[in-house]
Amino acid sequence: MAERKPLDDTLMDHAFRSQVYLERLKSGLVTRLEVMLQQTDRAIRERLAAGIGDRAALVSALGDVDSRLDQIYANARQEIQGELRDVADGVAEYETAFLNSLTPPATAPTGAAVAQFVRPAIGQLEAAYKAAPLAAQGVGNAAGGALLDSALKDMTDYQKNSIIGLIRQGYSQGQSMDDMIRALRGTKANGFRDGLLAVNRRHAEAIVRTATQHVAETVKGEIYDANADIIIGYQWVSTLDNRTSLQCRSLDGKKFRNTDKIKPKPPAHINCRSTTVPWLSEEFDFLDEGATRAARGESGKTSSVDADLTYYEWLKRQPADFQREVLGETRFKLFTKGGMNAKEFGRLNLNRAFQPLTVYGRKDDEGNLIEEGLIHKMPQAFRKAGLL
Hints:
There is one protein chain. By secondary structure, the chain is mainly alpha-helical. It has 2 domains: 7-230, no CATH class; 319-384, no CATH class. Helix content is 54%, strand content 8%. The longest helix is centred in the N-terminal third of the chain and has 47 residues, at 55-101. The chain starts with 6 loop residues before the first helix and ends with a helix.
């Protein structure tokens, strides 16, 4: 019989694998957007080909475009919702099966805890991820907190309004139909990446990827809640590479109990790749020794590091150029010369609500300080780093 891995090792391996699978699912969903964009392109070109001779014709054209896009986007939202439901079902099955594999009776030591994890029904999961606000800022509104249905509706409304605005502006500036179509599709010389459809494609892709992460993490949260007698909380796990955001870098490795009042959850921002792993009751400590996790350093190659290693502890081991690229000049100097360890630096970067702090704080239009920055939390580190 093969020797079982330590618990942290197993959890981190699973977090890495499940996120890889989820990224593939996101890419599959993104390909579905291509159908929507192709239909949009065709509908606009067909309508513009009829010409816009005067203002009355403009009003008629805009009404036709509005109606045709509404139908295209309604169908797209319905298809995306169906795909997200399938994602939720798959994540629930995968996560529950994994948890039940942790301590099968044949491998548990005599007297050790043996758990049977409960999988919530798909109806409960769908209700949960539709009712839970997306934590990611910039989805639906700048502050975050949009519900999934409204976030998808906002996404397609943005697409439609931008296209109608392009046509209206093109007419007011005397552009030809060819000019408008070129602005819509982009130019061949730039691989059609400079047109409005390309901008809309990137916007829609970011929203759909973020929505998929939201669904997956909400499902995991429901599993944690359904098994609260065994799972006492969760640990935040961020991807270890140079694309990781400030907020996710600082949250990496932090644990949150079920009883905590403030419990941030991924996705923290647009295109967030952070995830969580369950924090199991101490009865399962017998599984936990010498674990590792995956990381990608300056070379771009993936390697294994200690599972207890947080993002900033890992970053301490990276070359200075890589650290500077990730942190920016001011934070790089604080990190390397401010006299703080990795844990202190991570704590410094977030406020009490686990939101990222700016370097010098935020001020209102009249110059009054409305939120302290890093410099107010740790002025001695700024002095030591030569920043004051």
